[in-house]
Specification:
This protein has about 90 residues and is an all-alpha fold. The chain has six helices and no strands. Helix 3 crosses helix 5 and helix 3 crosses helix 6.
């Protein structure tokens, strides 16, 4: 489904991509929270994220909760949609 709608996702300008700047809506996230959001958007479970980042599952749950709270989101699905809408992740 993402491939079908990928053309509607925003394109980051070359300067934004080169600078590594996050879209304004994501600027309140820490680096680790951004990593967790990317992993969530990639479809990883909390256990898989914990293994990737070398932290406990409880730590991942805390990060996911903070990401949702900071971004005013209700669930992981909304987080995935936001990650794609902002260009943080792109369909492969």
């Amino acid at each position: 489904m993402l491939e079908e709608y990928a053309h509607q996702l925003p394109d980051l300008s070359d300067s934004e991509q080169e600078s590594g700047a996050l879209p304004a809506v994501l600027s309140g996230l820490t680096g680790r929270e951004t990593e967790v959001l990317i992993a969530v958007a990639e479809g990883l479970s909390n256990v898989e994220i914990a293994e990737r980042l070398y932290v406990s599952e409880a730590t991942v749950k805390s990060h996911v909760g903070r990401v949702l709270a900071k971004l005013g989101l209700r669930n992981r699905v909304q987080a995935v949609v936001l990650a794609f809408q902002t260009g943080l992740v792109r369909p492969s």
